[in-house]
Amino acid sequence: MDLLELCSLQGTMPPSGSVPPNGSVPPWTLGCFRRRSISFFNGDADDSTLVLWLQSRGLTGDLRLAADRPKPPSRESLAELSLDELTRMAEVEGGLSPTRFEAASGGGVELAGTMQWTDWTAFQIHDKWPEPGDLRRVGDCLIEYAPSGAYVEDWRLQPSGDGPLIGLTLLEERDTKSGQVTHRGGGLVIAGEHAIFVRGRAEALPPAARLSDLMERAAAEPKLLDAIFGFEASYARRDGSGRYVVSASTLPWREGRPLLALGGFKLEDGFVLQKAREKERAVERRFRVDTLEPNYEDWLATPATSQAVAWLGAEEQTLLRAARKR
Predict the structure, then answer these.
(1) What is the domain count for the chain?
(2) Is a pLDDT exceeding 50 seen at residue 15?
(3) For 280-306, b where at least 16 C-beta lie within 10 A, e where not — what string?
(4) Residue 180 is part of which domain span?
(5) Spatial separation of the C-alpha atoms in residues 31 and 233, rounded to whole Å
(6) Neighbouring residues of 285: CB distance < 8 A, sequence distance ≥ 6
(7) Which pLDDT tens digit goes with each residue over 83-142?
(8) Euclidean distance between CA atoms 323 and 105, whole angstroms
(9) Which of 3, 11, 311, 319 can bridge 7 by disulfide, Cβ–Cβ 3.0-4.6 Å?
(10) How many CB atoms lie within 10 A of CB 12?
């Protein structure tokens, strides 16, 4: 069965404006957000790193890529990179985590609350972002504050078009012929035309404080190097034929290729199973369901007081001039 068919059979959309049960996040946090900038307490800022955040009802998918990272054309070509290039390749970030949300106290129209991430399947092996996020949303802008005051991130909602909202936690992926586990942990989040697929490493890496601590050894050990890059976090956009095609990935050679096959899905004993072929190899994936909704709509506008509505109406000739020219 096609994954989108599965959504149509199983998915139900909660009433507009409602918050689903079991601690799921509110509607104004759903979808795909791209970071415009991060500003730190010392006055430094970064607006060049590509950072994407995809959110289903209870899962966050995340990808962070520096603009100057090396882009080898294949996994085999990793062995041709210098130690410095390998180290920069290993500075990428990506992962998937369950999310918990607590709404801010107080009334009014403000959309605010705290989101926590507690169990990442992540490319990095140390907890680089240990704080929860204090969130506030206005229009397409989602601001995330670190409670310690360490940084603030400015996120912008990316229009998602028509399509499903999907969140699946990947329990494991196996080679069906050999039975070997190829990936553990991660998952799939789809919001309309945006998607992220995360596949964790099959086995834990050797003990180290940080991934960078393993790179000198990995440069001389092909098996360790392959294990480090045996993790994938790939972001994709839907093309005109309905396929999701990778445009950014922790594995550069995945870019320009299909994210994953959308067929071969079925429900079995409360889980979602997929059988597919990749690189002439048959694989089986086992997922736990977070979200399966056939239709998803962006929150492009947010509530405001009557005074705010009146103010913008009075000043729209100058304040909205640029917006109307786009």
Answers:
(1) 1
(2) no
(3) eeebbbbbebbbbbbebbbbeebebee
(4) 3-325
(5) 17
(6) 170, 172, 173, 174, 273, 274, 276
(7) 999 999 999 999 999 999 999 887 667 899 999 998 999 999 999 999 999 999 999 999
(8) 33
(9) 11
(10) 9
